[in-house]
Amino acid sequence: xxxxxxxxxxxxxxxxxxxxxxxxxxxxxxxxxxxxxxxxxxxxxxxxxxxxxxxxxxxxxxxxxxxxxxxxxxxxxxxxxxxxxxxxxxxxxxxxxxxxxxxxxxxxxxxxxxxxxxxxxxxxxxxxxxxxxxxxxxxxxxxxxxxxxxxxxxxxxxxxxxxxxxxxxxxxxxxxxxxxxxxxxxxxxxxxxxxxxxxxxxxxxxxxxxxxxxxxxxxxxxxxxxxxxxxxxxxxxxxxxxxxxxxxxxxxxxxxxxxxxxxxxxxxxxxxxxxxxxxxxxxxxxxxxxxxxxxxxx
Length: 298
Hints:
Order of helices and strands: HHHHHHHEEEEEEEE
Largest sheet: 8 strands, antiparallel, barrel
Number of helices: 7
Helix content: 40-55%
Strand content: 15-25%
Shape: elongated
Low-confidence stretches: 1-15
Structural class: alpha+beta
Radius of gyration: 27 Å
Number of strands: 8
Distance between the termini: 90 Å
Mean pLDDT: 83
């Protein structure tokens, strides 16, 4: 009488491919959500160029989440599944990171060559979001966790991270810790050549108050993309801290260019080492989004 035939019973949680990548899409989505929360929580530590946080950002959250979920499953197919399949025969979860690094290097080389991108930054952008999903899948595989178990763990960690972001944003707002402050420079620091828009906008401010403008944006009611060039004068106005209605938090440069009519005032941004001039283009009442045109000193 022969030995009974033994059949391997598949795991109730799914097939091999599913088990290899359990939780990777959840980890990818969670890290994107937390990254967005950190970005919003630290908004007071960056220069918003007078725009603040546009309400359109919150209206577009459902669409952004859909894009993130699709990216999570694409990452799972192109990154996590190959890494976990290569790691599985070796038995140790520690092999996941070297395989992930090698795959990220290969993808970065392909992207850098195809789109003429700098290899180092391309590698960081690919490997950075890719590490956590691989670690999550490796953890789930070696702990024999299913999708539900990973969802509970990732959800708990994500919830704690979001609470910390909210608490940090509250503390930053109340204490002003590391809050952005526009630079305060002497008038002579602005007498220079300025350029912006990839070289499309140019401005030369002379020591004696002369100004030469090249394709600078105009104010409403002109068209959104209307610009003007010419010669004229400029004046420097330091910020006003009266504490009243006409309080102005930034220094600014006011231009008067012949033949251009009224022009926008260019306010100061950036840092003392790398100052910028910017103006906000667009009307809050229009359908066109508002944005900041920025000039950098050469």
